[in-house]
Design goal:
411 residues, alpha/beta, three-stranded mixed beta sheet
């Protein structure tokens, strides 16, 4: 690797000893990531990109390399799976893509349609991979900041721990009605994700078999789960898409999140399942705004502002920090000290929020990796530094269930 400038190390972080990092040059890391090794433990980190690692945007490759450099010395293996014919990382080499209990018919036939078909395809492999192998599923847009190996070792990876699932909370606070799907972790055969998987498959099987998620929010099996989103509007082609329609768009787009929320709130006495109780006792959730969206909180979801701040250079020796540099420093230090990760947003969110930091890093190739900038400081930290502590888990209540009755039966 090329040498980096010397960046200030914020309190509550420590440098990782170089023997505990894979610091080989990028081409060697890339070669390693494209040549899979057998799965021999639950310490797996799964990513998915339909056209394969070689076709990832450069900024996203840097995300994946950082995961590998930090975690592979601790026994973790990165698997970036795809749908490329003849690829050893083809998803069918990892899960049975002809089995209707694993993926829906549209997946098997390659018939998933719509503008976000790749995203929906990736949604459908998350549960099967975790159920078969155990480990972590993360979006390629995730930057890992906190000590994942330690958190795993003190929760899911510890047979004495009560925690069986790791993720970020995106629900109604301590009532625990939502979970992000961009970072999910559990051991193989997890009871919670098994039910989420069965429900998601059933949603895809309705109406004789669906080829997209459009309209899935109307399924009677999701009755009682609130729509996602807030009061967003979309200005497009001279027309305004109102908040209710935007909530529908977001909900159908992240229909996997609706399935998760239903299982979190389900009491199914026939199956011996109490979702609210399970969440309170066995799910380790990190608050998602601070935990994985903090840059957006600082910039009020203004992607251009985030991009401009992160593109600034740090003051050189003898220079006085200006106001904008101070804001950028505050963002980086806060992320490094308080966040467990950062999710670079793409997909439908671009229609709702406009440009994001992630989309601008992709558009301006290399802008996230200019030595001496705040973006590079953050990149440097995700490889070379670690947090002294793991993030706290939210303490959950056991509220009234969203539904009483069998998972796959209408109320």
């Amino acid at each position: 690797m090329t040498s980096s400038p010397t960046y200030p190390l914020p309190p509550t972080l420590h440098p990782i000893p170089h023997p505990l990092l894979d610091l080989r040059p990028d081409p060697e890391i890339d070669h390693h990531l494209q040549h899979p090794t057998p799965i021999t433990s639950p310490k797996n980190i799964f990513f998915f990109w339909t056209t394969g690692y070689e076709n990832l945007p450069p900024s996203t490759k840097r995300n994946i390399r950082a995961w590998h450099r930090r975690l592979s010395p601790h026994g973790w293996t990165i698997h970036l799976l795809n749908t490329l014919p003849s690829s050893p990382l083809h998803i069918s080499n990892y899960i049975d893509t002809s089995d209707p209990d694993t993926v829906p018919q549209a997946f098997t036939e390659g018939a998933i349609s719509g503008p976000y078909a790749p995203q929906h395809t990736s949604d459908l492999v998350r549960f099967p991979l975790l159920l078969r192998y155990g480990g972590v599923y993360a979006d390629v847009g995730m930057m890992q900041i906190g000590d994942l190996d330690r958190l795993w070792g003190e929760t899911v990876g510890d047979p004495a721990s009560r925690f069986e699932v790791l993720s970020y909370d995106v629900g109604d606070g301590v009532k625990g009605r939502g979970m992000t799907n961009y970072f999910l972790a559990a051991g193989a055969g997890n009871a919670f994700f098994a039910r989420c998987h069965r429900l998601l498959l059933q949603l895809w099987a309705e109406d004789g078999g669906r080829v997209s998620t459009e309209g899935m929010h109307r399924s009677p099996l999701l009755k009682g789960v609130p729509l996602m989103g807030g009061s967003f509007t979309i200005e497009e082609d001279g027309e305004t898409i109102g908040p209710e329609e935007v909530r529908v768009l977001l909900t159908d787009y992240i229909i996997q999140g609706q399935a998760i929320s239903m299982v979190m709130g389900l009491v199914d006495e026939e199956d011996g399942w109490d979702g609210p109780k399970y969440v309170a006792e066995h799910v380790y959730l990190i608050e998602f705004m601070v935990g994985s969206q903090l840059i957006n909180e600082f910039t009020n979801w203004d992607g251009r502002k985030a991009f401009d701040l992160m593109s600034l250079s740090l003051p050189k020796e003898g220079e006085v920090e200006n106001e904008e540099q101070g804001k950028a420093r505050e963002i980086v230090e806060a992320c490094l000290q308080r966040s467990f990760g950062f999710k670079l947003a793409h997909g439908l969110i671009l229609r709702v929020m406009g440009e994001t930091l992630g989309s601008l890093w992709r558009k301006h190739e290399g802008s996230d990796n200019v030595p001496g900038t705040y973006a590079h400081w953050l990149r440097h930290a995700t490889i070379y530094w670690n947090q002294d502590k793991i993030p706290p888990a939210l303490i959950f209540e056991t509220p009234e269930p969203l539904k009483r009755g069998p998972l796959l039966r209408e109320q």
